[in-house]
Amino acid sequence: MSETTPRETSQGGSPLVGIIMGSDSDFSVMSDAVQMLREFGIAHEVEVVSAHRTPDKMVTYAREAADRGLKVIIAGAGGAAHLPGMVASMTTLPVIGVPVPLAKLDGLDSLLSIVQMPGGIPVATVSIGGAKNAGILAARVLGASDPQLRAKLDAYAQGLTDMVEEKNAALKA
Ligand code: RP5
Questions:
Q1: Ligand 1 neighbourhood includes 75 CB (under 6 angstroms)
Q2: Pocket perturbation via mutation, ligand 1, pick of 23, 31, 49, 100 by most ligand atoms within 8 A of CB
Q3: What are the residue boundaries of the structural domains of the chain, listed by start?
C-alpha cells in the first residue's frame, strides 16, 4: 500500500484537498486550513511530508496527487521551506504555499523561499501563518466549478460584511 493512499475524511468521500506540512510542529498553524475546509464541508487529507526528511515520500505524494483525485494541494513549511515549490514542480495541480513562522526570523525566511518561484512553476503564496486564507483559497478554486460551494463562499463573505456592520452599529450605539 502506498504511503499516500486516499483516506476517508470527516466530510466523506475521497479527499479533494491535500494539506501537507514539513513537520508535525507546523500543525498549530496549518490547522486553520483544516478548520476552513471543515467549515465548507470539503473532503481533505492531512499528512506530514518533508522535502528534507522524507524526500521520496514528497515525490510520490506530488506525482500521485492528481490521479488520487486531489484538486488542490496546500503545503506549509517553515525555515528553508522548499516543500511547496518542489511539490509544484512535480504536479500541475494548483499548490497554495503557507509560510510557517519559526522562532528565528519570524517566518520571513519561509515567505521568501516559498514566494520567489521561478517563472513557469507557480505557488500561490499566502501570508506568513496564513493557513486560514489557504483553506479559503482552496475552497474558492473548487467553488469555481461547484455552485453549491460557491453559495457557501458567498454566505461566508456576507458574514464578514455583517460582522463589520454590527461592529459599526455597536460603535455608534
Ligand atoms: C520545516 O522545518 C518544517 O516545515 C518546520 O516548519 C521546520 C522545523 O521542523 P521541526 O524541527 O519542528 O520538526 O521543514
A1: no
A2: 23
A3: 17-146
pLDDT per residue as tens, the chain (173 positions) = 233 333 445 566 899 999 999 999 999 999 999 999 999 999 999 999 999 999 999 999 999 999 999 999 999 999 999 999 999 999 999 999 999 999 999 999 999 999 999 999 999 999 999 999 999 999 999 999 999 999 999 999 999 999 999 999 999 98
How far apart, in whole angstroms, are the C-alpha atoms of residue 25 and residue 127?
Answer: 18
CATH architecture assigned to 17-146 = 3-Layer(aba) Sandwich (3.40)
Query: Given the CA of residue 26, which atom of ligand 1 is nearest to it?
Result: 6
ipTM of the complex: 0.97
